[in-house]
Amino acid sequence: MAGIPAVERALRDAAPHQLLDVVTAAMKDQYGATGVELRIADYGMKSLQSVEFGPLAVEPLPLHDSPQGRVFGAQEPLVVRQAPGLVAVHMPVTVRGDRMGVLSVTLPEEQYRETALPEMQHVGAALGHEILVAERDTDLFQVARRTSRLTLAAEMQWQLLPGRSCVRPEFALGGHLEPAYAIFGDNFDWSASRDRLTLVVTNGMGDGIEAALLSNLAVNALRNARRAGLGVADQAALADQALYAQHHGERYLSVLLLEFDLATGAVTAVDAGSPRMWRLREGKVERVTFEAQLPLGMFEETPYVSERFQVRPGDRLLITSDGVYDTPSPGGTGYGERALARSLAATRLLPADQVPRAVLHELTDYRGRGPLEDDALVVCLDWHGRAALV
Questions:
Q1: Complete DSSP assignment for 221-267
Q2: Burial group, residue 118, by CB count within 10 angstroms (0-12, 13-18, 19+)
Q3: Which residue, among 374, 362, 368, has the nearest Cα to 329 in the 3D structure?
Q4: Count of helix runs (H) and strand runs (E) in the chain
Q5: Which intervals hold domain PPM-type phosphatase (predicted)?
Q6: What is the separation, in whole angstroms, between the first and last Cα of the chain?
Q7: pTM above the 0.90 mark?
Q8: What tens digit of pLDDT does each residue of 42-92 get?
Q9: For residue 296, what is the DSSP state?
Q10: Other CB atoms closer than 10 Å to residue 129's CB: what's the count?
């Protein structure tokens, strides 16, 4: 498509609410498209919501049992014959491994050719990147993501997240939170540089807006320390001081901090509370334990000490909050480590970004119909390592 650079320029120059209009015009001009639709995954990762007409004005599509859902899950394009003479081309919209949604283009069958698919996918990728930029200036895409109203605490927590997944040659990771529309204090954060990946999982005490405020303070204190070049032990100490200065020990927060050396797989860790980690290595699931240290903000100027361990290519790490492993069944039995180990083994063939949702789905079946009594957070990381790339 000779017009790809022109489309990219048009997307960069367009107002945030006109991005889909630019893509629609390009598809009509190049391929005679009769329809273009963008659907974005909702916060609960259960449906695909139409962007063009706003939330719920167009029927949501399930992530299961729909062509678009199949594309979203497999991350592969799909061409489906529609009415006589028409085909629909469904393509994933994904940015650096973070699955956003699906772009669908309906066009005359005689206009479609396989060589056009990479060109159309390129436009879809450019659209995804521009959506990330546009979200600074419009609510359009965030409104489209919701099937119902978020609580204020949930709004704050989702805005705090770096994304739901990230993929680089050395690793792939994904995370998810439940209840998606009413999350309280659990959160995760990550940052990758040329040489390091820092992964943080937090579990704040309390519920509602107070838990969300506590998590916001802690995560931003940790980011501030990380961006100042401090190691994970000093990051924990700085965040601990910030929380204690604000709450004087009345409110505190559990955290697991992990810093990965991307070249060697050496990991520096600080375990300050309740998030727990399991490892799947060569088919064997085992709990990874650390020296327990005090949660952040419990006492003034608590010293924190880092520990080290090693990850190998092929390792999968699963981190959960207590809202997962302590969740009771209808009979009162906690989900526990055995169930988590079984779940980790059962999802071993899924990509990292799909594992958290699968584990939380199993948790829903385990607890029955009752609502979650606490936030439930799952983060999964697959380690490939640089050695595997040689």
A1: HHHHHHHTT--HHHHHHHHHHHHHHHHTTSS-EEEEEEEEETTT-EE
A2: exposed
A3: 368
A4: 11, 17
A5: 168-383
A6: 34
A7: yes
A8: 999 999 999 975 445 678 999 988 999 999 999 999 999 988 899 999 999
A9: B
A10: 15
